[in-house]
Amino acid sequence: MAKPDLVPDYAVEVVDLVKTYGSTGKLALDGVSLAIPRGSFFGLLGPNGAGKSTLINILAGLVIKSGGTARIWGRDIDRDPRGARAAIGVVPQELNLDPFFTPHALLDVQAGMYGVPKAERRTDALLAAVGLTDKAHAYARTLSGGMRRRLLVAKAMVHNPPVLVLDEPTAGVDIELRRQLWDYVRELNAQGVTILLTTHYLEEAEQLCDSIAIINHGQVVACDTTRNLLKRIDRKQITVTVAAMPEALPPPLAPFAPEIRDGNRLVFACKGSTMPISAILDAVRDAGLTIIDLSTEETDLEDIFLQLTSSK
Ligand code: ADP
């Protein structure tokens, strides 16, 4: 007997999820297993065609899986499809809105569709939360792209789901509106809503997400905390520009095997944690060289992403 009110450890759990699209025989998900901890801000990254939308659409009940299991808030999507659907809100990629609906009416209709009793509807509060109080009774066609996006977030939250999925929500949204959107989503996360975000903006994922899964060709190629993922490569490039460089590499520098560019720039590729900058600088000084400039470049998610997805 399911205990719907039991709080699960994982907001979303998928095991060996497989999806083959009938029309093309295309294997879009090839045995994906993921466990998204309750309360996390989880990023799902991957190049175009990786299978991100397929995974999200299966969770949202819009695409039928070919194999495997999926649970949302502990509710199996096969055995308890209504319970699973009630636990998730999805902000779609497209900005499709009926142009003659007002934000207020849209949220009300959506709440009705989810069976939220009139007395429990939070239409005004939701509109206020996404900064659309002024536009509550304006036709949707008069809303800017950013406003539409925020309205879609409010729409996904009408039934107060514990899990909110955002599918590429900031494509085409300008920086200021993106910031507003993230403020609101962060606030929801702080209140305990688990966020699942797909994005192409790696920087955004790096800043927002506490954990990240990278998928490619329908398979999970990495899944870890953002911090561990960034540590995984742990590669730093340090460039030291010296006043003058002797013909032969001075012996103290030999163990570091720098690449020499433009006659006087020494480029050290190293692992940040095992070869601290100080050791390199000491060696440069021991070699009797005068440092005139220094720059470092850290690994970011982009590097990890490229490394993990380019090998296949
Ligand atoms: P992503 O969201 O990561 O870009 P998708 O889940 O949209 O990836 O697509 C994964 C793969 O499945 C792609 O190769 C895509 O062409 C294919 N695909 C997606 N939707 C369909 C569909 N309705 N019919 C056939 N193939 C599809």
Q: Any idea how many domains?
A: 2
Gross CATH architecture of the largest domain: 3-Layer(aba) Sandwich
Class derived from helix and strand content: alpha/beta
Q: Numbering strands along the chain, what is their spatial order in the largest sheet?
A: 6-7-8-3-9-10
How would you describe the shape? elongated
Total count of helical runs of at least 4 residues: 10
Overall strand count: 14
Q: Give the radius of gyration.
A: 25 Å
Beta content comes to 25-35%
Summarize the biggest pleated sheet. Answer: 6 strands, mixed
Unreliable parts: none
Bound compounds, each kind once, are: adenosine-5'-diphosphate
* CATH class membership of the largest domain: Alpha Beta
Outline the structure in words.
The structure is a single chain. The protein has helices at 52-59, 81-86, 103-113, 123-129, 145-156, 175-190, 202-208, 226-233, 277-286, 301-310; strands at residues 10-21, 26-37, 41-45, 67-72, 75-76, 88-91, 163-167, 194-198, 211-216, 219-225, 235-242, 259-261, 265-271, 291-298. By secondary structure, the chain is of the alpha/beta class. Bound molecules: adenosine-5'-diphosphate. The site of adenosine-5'-diphosphate (ADP) has 13 residues, from strand 2 and helix 1.
